[in-house]
Amino acid sequence: MMADAGKALEAAVVTVSDKGYAGEREDLSGRVVADALEAGGISVKRREIVADDRPELEYLLTRLCDSGLDLVVTTGGTGLSSRDITPEATLAVIDKEVPGMAEAMRAESLKVTPHAMISRAVCGLKGCTLIINLPGSPKGASECLSVVMPALPHALEVLRGEAYECGSS
Prior knowledge:
Blueprint: E1 10-16, H1 18-21, H2 28-39, E2 43-50, H3 54-66, E3 71-75, H4 86-93, E4 96-97, H5 99-110, E5 123-126, E6 129-134, H6 138-148, H7 152-160
Helix pairs in contact: 2-6, 3-4, 5-6
């Protein structure tokens, strides 16, 4: 599905958190991510909070991608605990991985903390929608999103079929 040329870029932010879903923790990461996307010119149309439940997350990601959004950004569930299922759910729904984005986030995060090595975040495409997994902490989510933000407008324009000249002379 190709978006109309010139139409604002549209996104959803999905927080994956058992405590957030149960109302036991405020969704600070989702807010930080939504604010950063809006500041970068990407309109956040949906914000969701889901439990760390793989079938539920797969269903939500599929619905969001099929709705015609350009971007779905998840926050949370990328670590090593038994409840961290975001990468597996993302891999189950995407058609293609975009490994450079996840690699760039880990490389930059490694300059800040050795814990970046244990991130299992993935990025990929489902149809014409880009899915990006971010860490669950507000600081980690913000830092990782700032790494990929410069590439997002062009990546999303390419997905929409609006960018044809990718090389520069």
